Amino acid sequence: MNSIRKNFLNRRVLSQYYYNFLDHIFLKSSETKKLIKDGFYIHNNKFPIEALSFKKYLNYENLNFVDERKKIDLNDLKKIYRYLNEMSIFKIIKEYLGKDLFCYDNSIFTLGTQKSFEGSWQPHHDSKGRRIKIYIWLDKLNYQTHPLYYKKSSHKNIINWNKYSDTRFPHEKGELEKIYGDLGDIIIFDTHGIHSNFKETTEPRSVVELTFEANGFLRRFNKKLFNTEFSRLGFINLNDLINE
Hints:
By secondary structure, the protein is an alpha+beta fold. The chain has a single domain (3-242), classed as Jelly Rolls, CATH 2.60.120. It contains 6 helices and 9 strands.
């Protein structure tokens, strides 16, 4: 095992113990407490879908794929982040992750008509440590499409891994909750928890996908040690998006 990966694994395990401990000390909002308890949280208020035009990112004419991502242009991205900020979404994420936040992915994530049972289409954790994703649902409630699967409270586990297969849990299928979104629903979840599942449905759906990580000594990313990864993922400082 190379020294960089070993250093990351040690810090990731330490950070999980550290933040599990902190979660029970400092006062948190009721929303953050729900996220801490279950590993996911569905916001009480919906995102104002009508405020932006998402049609240019959605092509439901050719869906012969498992999934695809389309990057959101910067002007639309700023609008999305400003609305989320007004809805106090980032208050929850900062209480959970910390204040020095960076975001990436920033895409429209569409599921097509092909099925899949490989890679990320099986129960897994993302092997990134404490990390948050937001899904903003862009379709009306449809129980025929693929939900977000999540094993409640599994984000609290101290999960170590030495190889890719250690991050996959194909036999967890029956223990996962199905989270179906409706148009405008905002779903927040910790990717350290076991999530996803075999894609057995062919009904398409799309979400806005946003990913957040914090910078810090016990984090996966550290400005001094992981500058190349910052560049590769196209990290954007959260405050740069909501304050411009």
